[in-house]
Amino acid sequence: MNMATDPPFRITAEIVLPLSIFFGGILLGLIFEILLLKKLSKKKGKNYEFLSSMRYMIMLSFAVVSIYATIHLTTMDRTLFHFLRKTLHEIMLLLGTIIAARLLTSFMKMYMKGTEAIFGIPTIFINLAKLLIYLVGLTIILDSLGVSITPILTAMGVGGLAVALALQGTLANLFSGLHVIASGKIKQGDYIKLSTGEEGYVIDMTWRDTTVKMSSENVTIIPNSKLASASVTNYSLPDNEMVFTAQVGVGYESNLKKVEDVTTSVATDVMREVSGGIPDFKPYIRFQTFADSRINMSVTMRVRGFSDQDMIQHEFMKRLHERYRAEGITIPFPVRTLFIRDNIPIGNKVRQS
Predict the structure, then answer these.
(1) CA 218, CA 331: separation in Å to the nearest integer?
(2) What is the band of 3 on the pLDDT scale with cuts at 50, 70, 90?
(3) Would you tell me how many other CB atoms lie within 10 Å of the CB of residue 262?
(4) CA dihedral (285, 289, 290, 293) positive or negative
(5) Half-sphere exposure of residue 10, counting CA atoms within 13 Å on the CB side?
(6) d(C-alpha 249, C-alpha 293), whole Å
(7) Cis previous bond, 279, omega within 30
(8) Which three-class secondary structure state does DSSP give residue 171?
(9) Per-residue pLDDT band at 33 (split at 50, 70, 90)
């Protein structure tokens, strides 16, 4: 008996075995992906972020490989066989392109987390990286199909000129965004203020606009071309630490030496005890003007970031007010004293009070 030509064995070789490989490969990929991601989800570390970008890609890769193995074990027309093999080859290239794009963007995000950046990497860089990989992948796929890309590039060059003219504003925003990022003068996490009044933390930069989070927890969207052309104050350069000044006034009867010592003492305690202050910084006082009802002075302190000013000033004013009351130092109300002289001439007459 010839087992190779026996009907039961032929059915096993031509139908059952290929189907087993096909469904087994898909099931194996699904199980592998579920178990791997489930195990890594408990860690929530860099490896999880990296491999989570492979979601569904593992199962699809196993499925394509199992289909590729199946068609080699199945008896079919040679023309259909070559067509299926060519199609699967292109699908593999497409999957490889998608996987490469996902892995690269995950690597970029992991790198930014490693640098302890607050808001991550600008979206414009991620999108450009994806676009570059997809273009390279598309070129490889077209080349494998025997499609000449030279006429395509020529047509794209001619069509690109027309598109550039139609999208001048969009391209201006794109190149303005790239210019701002490349200059390094504005980046995510910086606190900026535009000459037009918008201010807040830069939380994202896309190909068209920059998103700024204001102190009210709302966001304002600024076109990149406007950001590039406006006068911008960056409170995070050259360092996040910054000096800020609190204005204080005391009465004319105050002992200014005592006022200086008491105020410096309070400011020093605030620097050491309140989060956001610089403990090693020594605050200093500068008397400025003789105002109508008080002597004005400025108290200079240093904070870790722009957003720390509010809490430092809040605590400083509370503690200073309490200490002034204990030391007998007055913070006068706005007062204007009028002196009226007797016998003021009014025309040819003398006014008697």
Answers:
(1) 37
(2) very low
(3) 20
(4) negative
(5) 6
(6) 9
(7) no
(8) helix
(9) low
| Helices 256-273 and 309-327, axial angle in degrees (round to 10) | 140
Q: How many other CB atoms are found less than 10 A from the CB of residue 226?
A: 16
Q: Could you give phi then psi for residue 323, rounded to 5 degrees?
A: -70, -40
Cα–Cα distances (Å) from 329 to 124, 208, 292, 306, 322, in that order, read 56, 56, 18, 31, 10
Number of Cβ within 10 Å of residue 96's Cβ equals 16
Dump the DSSP string for 27-60. Answer: HHHHHHHHHHHHHHHTT-SHHHHHHHTTTTHHHH
- Say what the alpha-carbon torsion angle 148, 153, 159, 163 is, to the nearest 10 degrees: 130
pLDDT digits 0-9 by tens, 199-233: 888 888 777 788 888 877 888 888 888 887 788 88
Question: What does the block give as tokens for 27?
Answer: 């099931």
Spatial contact of 331 and 277, defined as CB atoms under 8 Å apart: no
Region of 184 (left: φ > 0; alpha: ψ -120 to 50; beta: rest) is left
pLDDT tens for 140-158 read 877 777 777 677 666 666 5
Q: Which two tokens stand for residue 39?
A: 């195990």
∠ CA 89-93-96, rounded to 5°: 135
pLDDT digits (tens, 9 = 90+) for 266-286: 999 999 888 888 888 899 889
Cα distance from N-terminal residue to C-terminal residue, the chain: 144
For residues 45 and 269, give the distance between their C-alpha atoms in angstroms, rounded to a whole number.
39
What are the tens digits of pLDDT across the range 68-115? 777 776 777 778 777 878 888 888 888 888 888 887 777 766 665 554
| Residue 6, both tokens | 């026996």
Q: Token digits for 339?
A: 């002196």
How many C-beta atoms lie closer than 10 Å to residue 285's C-beta? 18
DSSP 239: -
> What are the structure tokens assigned to 171, written together?
């391209």
Contacts of residue 95, Cβ cutoff 8 Å, sequence gap at least 6: 57, 60, 61, 64
As a whole number, mean pLDDT of residues 26-53 equals 62
Q: How far apart are CA 77 and CA 342, in angstroms?
A: 125
Q: Is the dihedral of CA 277, 279, 281, 282 positive or negative?
A: positive
